[in-house]
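ligand=arginine
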Amino acid sequence: MNSRKIVSLSLAVIVLATMLAACSGSATRAAPTSAPETKPFVVASDASFPPMEYVDETKAIVGFDIDMMNAVAAAMGFKVEYKNTAWDGIFAGLEGAAYDAVLSAVTVTDERKQKYDFSEPYVNAGQIVVVRTDETAITGDKTLAGKLVGAQIGTTGAFAVQKIEGAKLKEYDTIDLAMLDLLNKNVDAVVVDTPVAANYVLASENFKGKLKLVGTPFTEEYYGVLVRKGDPTGFLPKFNEGLKKIKADGTYDKIYAKWIGVSPAK
Ligand code: ARG
């Protein structure tokens, strides 16, 4: 082997080694030079809860929560990536760090606060009773004894029904299945967050005109975004500051009017 051949051979070895190192580096972790700010916050949402979050005809996740979060992200200069996630298991996924936050019309409760950290509350949304339009005996939460009542499993709606003496709870994976069963007379009523109840009764293609709200909201509840205890990704201060900004500049009110209709209780 002459010296030229040796030089070109060793060059080839160096190039190959460099390429291999580059490959294995990118396979294990992102280049350390990429700024952490550009990495999107991964947010899980059970997109089956209109108008808060649902999948539209174009298969996009839309709703109040999405518009609000996008506005907050724009105001604060961070990126968000949404992960459609079944409600049953959405908290477990957060604990397993499958995503950074849950944005899913989640009610802030004392029980949940023991396990997770919440943002500032962003919507007032108590439970309300939904019945078929021809229903006369059920006039609100006080008239549910002896009745079969549908709710989404593991939600504050289901917890509220469990507390009503004499009411029997039937649980569903998603709220639209409960509404369908109500329409088909398999349950007598459904209990769910007021914005969602109002959406089914007033705006839903399949349900409007066939269902009605009775009584007034009978729990006091607020939605919050939740993260793992200690907020390891530093999300909450950014979200809370952004929420303040979009409330101050009128963006929040516009989003509220668009999706929930009535102007937000101040
Ligand atoms: N607010 C209720 C709760 O936190 C129901 C939330 C259900 N959200 C959903 N996207 N399915 O228990």
